[in-house]
Amino acid sequence: MIDVGKLAAVLGSGVCSALPGLHAWSGCDTVSALASQGKIKALKLVQANDLYLQAFTDLGSSWNVPTDVFNSIQAFTCQLYARNTKIVGANSLRYHMFCAKKGQIESGQLPPCEDSLMQHTLRANYQAAIWRRSLENLPDVPAPSAGHGWELDDGGSLKIRWMAVYQLQMSS
User: Could you give the 3-state DSSP secondary structure of residue 74?
Assistant: First the structure.
């Protein structure tokens, strides 16, 4: 058995408040994980940086992802993929990593592009928001396809929305 009280005391209330957002974002039953990026690495990064800690504490507190929260999560993602980088934009880091390897890099070794990262963050935010409201009677929950990183296919089934910009360009 795991003594959850003792674990919470060791982690501290700040980290415990960030865990629902971090767990959803780093991969859970309803939100995919980023390739080759584990939960322990993500947790250590959050424990070492108050800005990231606050971003994951805020994730799921509302149904929308505020710009400052997404910007912090984007910087966090860059640190996750390249620990010592000063780059805070996912697209810029992808480009620099690709150039540094002269194109000899697997796509799973690159961070997601900013558009995909936003959709991933929207899905994690939605899941964390569900968890954060788990003790409410009859919480007002919007449809996951209403701008939360999922969409309905032609048959009405829920599917992941991987990118928004590409899909908008394709439909134009």
Answer: helix
Whether residue 169 has pLDDT greater than 60: no
Return the axis-axis angle of helices 13-25 and 114-132, rounded to nearest 10°. 120
Residues 29/114, Cβ–Cβ less than 8 Å: no
Q: 164, 129, 134: which is closest to 149 by C-alpha? A: 164
Model pTM greater than 0.90? yes
Concatenated DSSP letters for 42-59?
HHHHHHH-HHHHHHHHHT
Nearest to 62 by CA among 143, 107, 125: 125
Domain segments of the chain as ranges: 4-171
Residue 86 — very low, low, confident or very high, per pLDDT cuts 50/70/90?
A: very high
Structure tokens at 110: 């690159």
Tokens of 171: 């439909």
